[in-house]
Each structure stands twice: as structure tokens, then as C-alpha cells.
């Protein structure tokens, strides 16, 4: 298996379809672990990175009016949105490990990871939205409805 450090390297590989599948599987595993975490631990107590406070402060400074309970894909993927997200994301280069790796994000925070509720974003976008959801109480629904046994 080839060790890859960025999505750009994936594009340069001859067996890109296989490697893309590996990336997709890793993204799904990350999503599954995260969902299990917010299902079993009260989200308001979670710390996702060493710099959660900085990520949250910068996110709300840049995206104070962004509705995060149910995300509009256009707010993440349209050209105007990309222009706004790019400087936000780049400020975490060298601060958040793998900040630009592809990660799955739930659009509606009350639902799980299923095809119609999932979008592919950078890891720093995932952290920004999920830290905000945890701190602002939006992920409490997942935790409070999770079976305990």
C-alpha cells in the first residue's frame, strides 16, 4: 500500500480508483467513530482537537450567521462559499493535522451518516461545524436518543 499525504497525490497514482476507495473507506470509518462518540458521550464535553477554542472562535467570527443544525450544501460548496471557506481553512495549516483531508459531514445533525445526509468536506470544515454543533447543543439529539444498555 502506498502512503499518501494529500488528495493531490491520489490523483497522480495509476491505481487511483483503488486508492480513492481506500480514502472513502477511511472517511467513512472516521464518520462512524465520530457518530458512535457523540452517541455515547455528552457532546458538550467532547474535545475534538487541541485547538477547539481557536477553531470555534474563528469559525463563528467568519460564519456567525451560518445555520449549522441543517446545513445547506451551497453554503459549503458554491463558488462564493468556497471563497469564504478557503481563508478560514488555510489559517489552520500547520496547526490542525490533516486539516485539508476529505471528511464526511452530516447535513442534518439530528440524523446519521446516510447517503442523502452526507457531504464531503475538508477535515477543518468538519471540525468547525461539529465543534459548534457540540458547543451549541445541536448534537444533543443524537446523544439523548442513542440506546444505552
UniProtKB/TrEMBL annotation:
Q: Which InterPro entries does this entry report, sorted A to Z? A: PBDC1-like_dom_sf, PBDC1_metazoa/fungi, Polysacc_synth_dom
Gene Ontology CC terms = cytoplasm
- Residues forming the Polysaccharide biosynthesis domain are 19-143
Q: What is this protein called?
A: Polysaccharide biosynthesis domain containing 1
Organism whose genome encodes this protein: Pelusios castaneus (West African mud turtle)
Amino acid at each position: 500500500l502506498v502512503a499518501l499525504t494529500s488528495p493531490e497525490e491520489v490523483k497522480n497514482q495509476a491505481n487511483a480508483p483503488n486508492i480513492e476507495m481506500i480514502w472513502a473507506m477511511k472517511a467513512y470509518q472516521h464518520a462512524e467513530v465520530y457518530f458512535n462518540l457523540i452517541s455515547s458521550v455528552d457532546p458538550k464535553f467532547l474535545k475534538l482537537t487541541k485547538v477547539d477554542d481557536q477553531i470555534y472562535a474563528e469559525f463563528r467570527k467568519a460564519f456567525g450567521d451560518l445555520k449549522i443544525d441543517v446545513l445547506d450544501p451551497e453554503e459549503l460548496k458554491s463558488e462564493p462559499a468556497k471563497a469564504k471557506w478557503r481563508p478560514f481553512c488555510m489559517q489552520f495549516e500547520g496547526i490542525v493535522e490533516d486539516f485539508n483531508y476529505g471528511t464526511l459531514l452530516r447535513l442534518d445533525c439530528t440524523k446519521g451518516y446516510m447517503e442523502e445526509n452526507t457531504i464531503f468536506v475538508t477535515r477543518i470544515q468538519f471540525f468547525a461545524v461539529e465543534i459548534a454543533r457540540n458547543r451549541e447543543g445541536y448534537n444533543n439529539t443524537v446523544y439523548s436518543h442513542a440506546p444505552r444498555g
